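Discussion board: Methods & Data

I've been asked by a reviewer to show the raw model output for two of the constructs in my manuscript, not just the figures. I'm not sure how much to include, so I'm pasting the format here to get opinions. Each protein appears as its amino acid sequence followed by a line of discrete structure tokens. Is this the kind of thing reviewers expect to see in a supplement, or should I convert it first? Here is construct A:
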Amino acid sequence: LGHSLGELTAACVAGVFSFEDGLRLAAERGRVMAQTTPGLMLAAMLPPDKLAILLDKDLWLAAENGPKMSVASGLVDAVEGLERRLAAEGVATLRLASKNAFHTPLMADAAKAFRAAVAATTRHAPKIPWLSNVSGTWIGAAEAQDPQYWANQIVSPVRFTRNLAVLAERRRLL
């Protein structure tokens, strides 16, 4: 299990990418994502469904980090406006150390470039299962090797809460 960039680490540990290729891909992912439109990310002490209701133009749900913790991401003015609204409602927030709106459609150009980088990299079926941040459940071998999956992972919300629920259920069944 990894979160955002950590999922690329999980793929390396699982054997999809070599360690060296994983390092190269991580650097490329950071490079192309940093070149996108400036934005902000804001963690909020709200369940993802409650935060989603408050999102409007230029704001997206970027991560579900816990039952009562989620992250909004978007253009600077939109995130600052959300931050003010949440403060007025007494909701605890924290700006993340990001100058870009990760896990949003604003990452489309980065996703396209990263897809090409993954397509040019040797990939193997995973030897160890891991949980997808995109779907929130176990990743399939074909999906793990698909360059489009890795492009989607950049623009999709991180479903970490779902990942944790799957792990908890697995543990319960053991």
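Construct B, same format:
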Amino acid sequence: MSPRTIFLVYRKELRETLRDRRTLIVMVLLPLALYPLMGVGISQWLGTQQGVRARQASRLGLRGPEWPALSLSLAHDPVLEVKGQGDANAVRRGKLDAVLELPAATPAQRAEGTVRVKILFDAARDRSSQAEERVRQALRRFSDEQRGERLRLRGLPPSLALPLTSEGVNLATSRDLGAHLLSSVLPLVLVLMVLLGAFYPAIDLTAGEKERGTLETLFVAPAARV
């Protein structure tokens, strides 16, 4: 097969590809216009949904013996709405976002020991996962308050139980974070754009030829099937 024959077939296919409106739309218009708009739209929608969930209080149920001090602390948390007694079925049905299960602990255990509680939540629902994180934070604050109260009753400073604290300092600027995000996402987007852009011309080389009635002409061209 001569180079001239290969070039003739290549030039014919390239000319038809550039003349076809649908191919140009898929190869040029969609990657340059639609995909960025879809990305921005999805990002805006996700941001809106996160904002809505952040403003909504998580519905929390309690199960087990009453603990007045803990119940009062949870009731004063602005992102938690205590609904009274609840169970795992209420979480599965979506009536509650999480349930805090309290064990049968004696007053001495609550005053001096360690009480282990369980947080029942549904990881398949975003609101329930968010409620689990909120309950953990509330329990952490309550535990710190109880530890400080125990030390105070024994005449010890609260700092005695906290020998070390840490603070992370982010040195990256917003420009650095943007560049990092682009370096992570842009290669994948470019690969997808190339694959999707070449997908339609590949279809047009077979189905398009038959649709236009030129497939037979291509078959009888002096070019090998390869």
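Answer (T.O., handling editor elsewhere):
This is acceptable in a supplement if you add a one-line summary per construct. For B, something like: The CA atoms of residues 183 and 189 lie 10 Å apart.
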